[in-house]
Amino acid sequence: MKPRHALTAGFVLLLAAAPWLVGSYGQTLLDYIGLATIVVLGLVLLTGVGGLTSFGQAAFVGMGAYTTAYLTTVAGWSPWWGLLAALLLVTLAALALGWITLRMSGHYLPLSTLAWGLSIYLVFGNVQAIGGQTGLSGIVPLRVFGWTLSTPRQYHYLIWGVVLLIVWTVHNMLDSREGRAMRALKGGSLMAEAMGIHTTRFKTILFVLAAQYACVSGWLYAHMQGFVNPTPFSLGQGIEYLFMGVVGGIGDLWGALLGSSLYSMLRQWLQDFLPHLLGRSGSFEGLAFGVLMILILQRAPEGLWSRVRALGARWQEGGAPVRPAQAPELGARALPAAGEVVLQVQDLTRRFGGLIANNAISFEVRAGEVLALIGPNGAGKSTLFNCISAVDRASSGQVRFLGRAIERKDSRAVAAMGMSRTFQHVRLLPRMSVLDNVALGAHLRGHHSFVASAWRLDRAQEASIQATAWRQLERCGLAGHAGAPAGSLPLGLQRVVEIARALATDPCLLLLDEPAAGLRYLEKRNLAQLLQQLRGQGLAILLVEHDLDFVMGLADRVVAMDFGEKIAEGLPRDVQKHPAVIEAYLGGVDEPLREATA
Ligand code: ADP
Ligand code: MG
Predict the structure, then answer these.
(1) Which run of H or E residues covers position 356?
(2) Angle CA 431–37–256, to nearest 5
(3) Is 362:508 a contact under the CB 8 Å cutoff?
(4) HEC string of 201-232?
(5) For the chain, how are helix, strand and coil distributed in percent, rounded to 5?
(6) Which pLDDT does position 587 carry in this prediction?
(7) What is the tens place of the pLDDT at every residue in 567-592?
(8) How far is the CA of 423 from the centre of ligand 2 (A)?
(9) According to the CATH classification, is domain 336-418+507-590 in 3.40.50.300?
(10) How far is ligand 2, taken at its centre, from the CA of residue 375, in Å?
(11) What does the pLDDT read at residue 282?
(12) Strands 557-562 and 565-570
């Protein structure tokens, strides 16, 4: 058994024995910790995985609690129907809120969750049908398999069962195709979308899941407590949930547990202990608590779990991953016949205000050909790449890929058609393993959803994705780095990881933006060999490169650009000798003039 699994098993046993180990006071506290953990687990998904912040989780807890309280007391429903109704209501509310805010970047989400938390709290306190400030009481206890749960001890297994179920399913979910897509949200939407990941969809999923967990916590709370009032669903409580996550370590499922346990226990302890010490009661505990939390955050800015993990890393078994078991690779698409036109750029113009970054550029790329795009800095090469890959829109002109115009397509659709790219400024997920980064490229080639992966129904496909990613790593000579965090590689090699990721999409056209930058001589030679091999297999490759020597030995044809204009096109030898190209590359004397025109 691996140490990690042994620890988990030990923890589960301890939880199972807990009702016999703690008194009734401790049991109540433990139940509350479990309820908070359920909410914070949602925040681990939302904030830790998706990089989104919500202050409004307490409002979702309250919606869960109030819905079931109302339906069971006033309408006489069973609690289980109450749960269903609460989940439905919360899901609709989260979808609506998400629909409005998740497309906008920046502070919109945190701010709107603040507003949301505030307004729902006011609703709870002011609507007389749900009891106003007094709330609702006489909520029936839960019945599970004929057992009525009426004491905190009896709720223990249900609450912690829910916690463990969420930990298990979320853990499974994150370790899958759609889970990787969720983790990719932190790398910015540009890269994710270029890999075919629908970022708004995944943000919405995370937001809804987090709201649903909060709802379940509220439902359990209402039935355990027997009454509800607005107090525990205030904005302040919403902020406290976020705090628990941050203190524990928002990047890790166990961090949620650590955070909510520590937070709840410390808070309780200070409340009981400080008034004794000071001989009078007051709100000192609030102050002391705040100071303590700030100290913890200052000592462990990534949360306390990262400290625990650092300790654990010492015993961890060696990190070198092995080749995934002999799973079949994902099926590959049929490539166009060599010489067939794959990409056609016609009169493409891109203006940024008064600046013409690309002016009426035309060229073609054929299957089984390497076309190099050269030109000094600022010539407009990356802009052209962005327009071709539908990351950016041309002001006028046309791009046809495999005979179809891409004007109306987004970068996901273009990726799905078989165009893949790397970025001039490397866009990898630095903490994710090299293998997982590459597997991200295979996103569109799988189909299992996060629901299937939560229950481990996607394993055969996942093994194929891993095998495919591994194969691309081998192809690019990076298999030895498969288990390393991508950010630990030298920048030059990170570019090669991007090529492997692009290859994992199974492209027929590869766009490489300065792939050789930062590589050493030998690495450059290997890269050139790889590209030659890919060309031999029928791929079309369009590459932007600065290093003329690299281009000359590799490219079949060269297009040279300067100031957004195509200044030459032809065989490498000819373009190299072209007066306009020599002028563009050697014309350093013109620099001041250039800047004036730019
Ligand atoms: P290259 O990749 O050849 O070095 P770029 O395509 O990055 O050149 O840039 C071409 C020109 O377009 C530069 O003058 C640059 O400042 C300008 N440019 C690029 N992107 C933008 C943008 N988003 N907004 C305004 N100007 C831009
Ligand atoms: Mg560039």
Answers:
(1) strand 355-366
(2) 20
(3) no
(4) HHHHHHHHHHHHHHHHHHHHHHHHHCEECCHH
(5) 60, 10, 30
(6) 66
(7) 999 999 999 889 988 888 776 444 44
(8) 9
(9) yes
(10) 9
(11) 65
(12) antiparallel
Average pLDDT over residues 25-51: 95
Pocket of ligand 1 (CB under 6 A): 352, 355, 357, 375, 377-383, 598
Pairing of strands 370-374, 540-544: parallel
The owner of tokens 């044809």 is 557
Report domain extents, the chain: 31-233, 336-418+507-590, 430-504
Beta bridge partners of 446: none
CA distance 149 to 219: 14
What is the DSSP secondary structure assignment for residue 75, as one 8-state letter? S
Give 379 Cα–ligand 2 centroid separation in angstroms: 8
Q: Is the pLDDT of residue 541 over 90?
A: yes
Candidate of 350, 355, 359, 562 to mutate for ligand 1, largest count of ligand atoms within 8 Å of Cβ:
355
Task: Give every CB contact of residue 522 below 8 A, 6+ residues apart in sequence.
Answer: none
The CB-based long-range contact list for 408-411 (8 Å cut-off, 24+ gap) reads 410/193, 411/193, 411/194
Give 423-481 as a DSSP string. -SS----TTSBHHHHHHHTTGGG----HHHHHTTTTHHHHHHHHHHHHHHHHHTT-GGG
pLDDT at residue 318 greater than cutoff 70: no
Q: Do the Cβ atoms of 342 and 379 come closer than 8 Å?
A: no
Residue appearing with tokens 């100031």: 563
State phi, psi for 260 to the nearest 5 degrees: -70, -35
Q: At residue 220, what is the residue type?
A: L
* CA neighbor of 32 nearest in space, from 283, 293, 218, 238: 218
User: Quick one: which atom of ligand 1 is closest to the CA of 386?
Assistant: 6
**pLDDT at position 269:** 85
For residue 232 the two structure tokens come to 């525990």
Residue 431 vs residues 28, 145, 187, 347, 373: alpha-carbon distances, Å: 38, 44, 10, 41, 32
Distance CA 464, CA 474 (A): 15
d(CA 379, CA 111): 40
| The residue type at 42 | G
pTM: 0.92
For residue 559, the ligand closest to its alpha carbon is 1
- Closest approach atom of ligand 1 to CA 379: 3
Q: Which amino acid is at 56?
A: G
The closest alpha carbon to 495, from 556, 434, 549, belongs to: 434
Q: Give the β-pairing of 396-401 and 404-405.
A: antiparallel
